[in-house]
Amino acid sequence: MTYWAQSPRLAVQHRPDTRFIWNQTNDALYSEIHLSPGISTLLAILLNIAGRPLTSIIGNGLLLGSAISLCHSLGLNRDSSDWDIPEAEKLLRTKIWWAIFVYDKWSSLAYGTPPQLRSGQYDVSIPSLEQLCGPPAANPVDYEATSVYLAFVSLSRFLDRYLEHIYDLDKALPTGPCDLEVLLTQWEDSLDPSLRRRIIRGGDRLDIPGSANLRLAYLYIKLLLRKWELDAEKAASAAAAVDAAPGHATSSSIPMRCYLEVRRAAEEIVLLVQELKAPQLGDYWLPLLTFAFTSTPKFLLRCALETENTIGGIAQSMSLKLARDLVDALRGHRQRGWDVGDLCIAQYSDVVEKLAASTSGAGLAEQPVDVPELQEYLSTSVPDIDELFPSLWDMFGTT
Fold it and tell me: How confident is the chain (399 residues) per 10-residue block, as mean pLDDT?
């Protein structure tokens, strides 16, 4: 239903009521889960949780949990390459497994719940290009699109390593931001040269189906790594202040370099959104990446409050400007029917305008920043990544 207008044959027809059809399919799906679940049930669940706009967070989580349980019951977590079943069934099982894997990891990041699939509990290999679409000459477009999909799957495997640290309550894993930065660089180097240029540089090169979605996911992970580095600097600074001898002053300030690197990572997301054209807007987008758009302005606004000392400084800060640019770009895309940024618009459209208005009054330029007063504009009714991981992302709290 989301892509109804993208089909020349369907666009001239009346589109049925989306909510009515959604309710009917949900009723049928839940009935099948309880009565006779099978491979077809997994396909139906994938179509359900991939729906846009993203409105049922708890419902999607329940369906994904059911799908993972069913995957284990049907043995999809095991390598079936030497099983006595048709090759087509082997490939179907592999494709379903990795689709479930992708949604498990990105749902974990978006919803703030631990991933349900753990490394060491499956041995399914990622399918090859030839397995999925045949020889390259068969259909070049399908071949390139499949390359993007496989790159997204491998990026999701990297995300799994990141989530292992996030949800390690004992903090027994030695992995740090620098270690993951190396792994991300290795992922970049593993890409085909042509695809690597598209994903790393972006711009007008995002013409392969799924490439814009992959670039957003890549930039989002880079932003999270930069946040992690900044959080590590804050923790080290706080520890140094505690360990300092009484009467000896210590520098507890965080290097501006850390803020600039995170802001630069956020700016890449803003630029990506501004550069999207109609072909990219009508392309596939993982609905869960809507949380990339809610996390970006929230960090930018808090970054402005943390790095500026005066009201005038906040009003003129690049962080506030980037947040406004992102919201404005998402508004423009919404007029074309693109709903991936709806949550960001709902949460931050008024917030950004109010914060800008509150810092632009005459005679306020040199007034010191009242952080608690301004932070009231950052309160939102829907949690996002910063609130779902308070121990890691609550970098701008005051004491």
Answer: 75 82 87 92 93 81 94 95 94 96 95 91 92 74 91 96 85 70 93 91 83 96 91 77 57 72 94 94 93 92 80 81 96 93 92 75 53 50 42 40
Q: Going by C-beta distance under 8 Å and a sequence separation of 6 or more, which residues neighbour residue 144?
A: 195, 208, 209
Q: CA-CA distance, 228 to 262, in Å (whole number)?
A: 10
**Torsion (CA) 281, 274, 286, 348 in degrees, nearest 10:** -120
Report the distance separating Cα 240 and Cα 250, nearest Å. 7
pTM: 0.86
> For residue 9, is it within any domain?
yes
Residue 342 CA to chain centroid, in angstroms? 14
- Residue 219: domain span: 4-120+138-239+253-393
Under a CB-based contact definition with an 8 Å cutoff, are residues 244 and 296 in contact? no
**Per-residue three-class SS string for 274-319:** HHCCHHHHCCCCCHHHHHHHHHHHHHHHHHHHHHCCEHHHHHCCHH
| Residue at 244 is within a domain | no
157 belongs to a structural domain: yes
Tokens encoding 244? 């300092």
Nearest Cα neighbor of 126 from 102, 143, 162 is 102
The answer to whether 386 and 303 are in contact (CB under 8 A) is no
CA-to-CA distance for 20 and 18, rounded, in angstroms?
6
Q: Are 273 and 363 in contact (CB under 8 A)?
A: no
**Count of domains for the chain:** 1
Q: How many Cα atoms within 13 Å fall on the side-chain side of residue 262?
A: 30
